[in-house]
Amino acid sequence: MIRTDQGGTTVWSPSEVRAALHAYQAEVLHEAARLMENAGYDDDAINWLDTYADYDPAGEAATT
User: Fold this and answer.
1) How far is the C-alpha of 14 from the C-alpha of 35, rounded, in Å?
2) What stretch of H or E contains 30?
């Protein structure tokens, strides 16, 4: 259960919460990879971070 700013309540299933969290994590990690790329970091480190951002061993991000 997620409480909204307006005082209401939104009910999400556990799989919806996991998918939303995975999407947010992927977005943040991809952004970090872009920042590393712009700062001139090693390509292997950037590629690893991009790959890790898309890693979803349970396949839960695709279930919603």
Assistant:
1) 32
2) helix 14-38
